[in-house]
Every structure is written in C-alpha cells, then in structure tokens.
Amino acid sequence: MALCSRNIVVAVVSALACARAAPSMKASRLSAAHRWPTPPPAVARAFASGLVALTLVAAPLVASADGEQFKIERGGASSSSEGFSSGAYKVITRGVNLDRSDFAGKNLKGVAFQQSIVRDAKFMGANLRGATFFDATLDGTDFTGADMTQANLELAQLNRAILKGTILREVYVVGNTLFEGVATIEDSDWTDTELRKDQRLYLCGLESAKGTNPKTGVDTRESLMCP
C-alpha cells in the first residue's frame, strides 16, 4: 500500500514538473500546434490542491506500513492498523519467539500463534476465542481466567501451563496434544472438548481437577466427564 502511494505521488510530481517546464520549451523544438499550453490559474490552483491532498493521504499510509514492519519485527504481522496498542487486533505469528509476552486482558479473538514459542507469557483474562496455538510451545504460560472457547491446541506443549479458571469449551485437541505437566486446571471448564481417553484420565487424576468455573458455573470434573 505504501509503495503504491509513493508511486502515485512521484507520478503526480513528475506530471506537475512537466506541465511547468513545457511552456518554456523553445519554439524551434515544438510547433505552436503541439506546444504545451499554460494552464489557467484556477486549474493550476486546483491541481496543486489535489497534489497536497494526495500527499496528506499518502503520508499516513507510509507511516502505517512502517508500523506494520515494526510489528513484524516484534513477532506479529497485524491485519489491523490499530496494532498491538489497541487490545483488539488480528495477528498471525509463525515460528516466532514471544517468551514472557504480556497479553493479559487483551482481545485476541481469532489470533494465530501457531508454531510459536510462547513460554512464561501472560494471557490472564484474555479473549482467546477461536485463537490457534497449533504446535506452539506454551510452557509456563498463564491462562488464568482466559476464554479459550474453540481454540486450537493441536500438538501444543503445555508443560507448567496455568489453566486456573480457564474456559476451554469445544477446544480442538485432536492429535498429539499433551497436557502432562500442567500446573493447575482448577475451576476450568472443558465442556464439549473431545479429549483423548488417556489425556482425559490424566486430567481427571490431577489434584487440581476440582472447583467450578466462575464465569460459566460449570464444575471442572463434570466438564471433563471424570469417572
């Protein structure tokens, strides 16, 4: 977008320069019939105003592109001009190191963190509905009170992860998703999450498999269908 804007500005500036230079061409090189006419004052003013307006429009686009690059360097290519500071954005990260990142309380609905390293990060109270952590490393990450409804945890590594009060409804865990080593699942809600039999038994056997989710009012062991 920024490159296109720059090209437009360059083209307009070039056209304006040609328009100004044309009347000064020698008559011997250009017949009167083909000579560039001097534009009327009103037309010249309108043209100049249009150029200024175009420059003002293009400038934010260049700044926005620089911002996109900044976000890419930080590990996220955002599809929203609001970016990281807004708390409501779309980010796609692939194979990025986001260790110790603080996303607590952020609106991360639909955000993709696939194949990224997100160890010891903070997602407390975050909206992670539909987010994907496919093949991500989430060791020690805190999801306390986060809403992970319909999130993708396939192949995710959750050693030491904190799932206290986390809503894990309809989470996609098919594949080699392993919950071995999670720090706690107290007060979590696993309603309609199709866990592998061995993983269900493992979670049900945890001392922290107890309590009731404060937001949904669902009992943890009941949502896990523990025996």
TrEMBL record:
InterPro entries (UniProt xref): 5peptide_repeat (IPR001646), At2g44920-like (IPR044213)
PANTHER family with a match to the protein in the record: THYLAKOID LUMENAL 15 KDA PROTEIN 1, CHLOROPLASTIC (PTHR47200:SF2)
Provide the protein name.
Uncharacterized protein
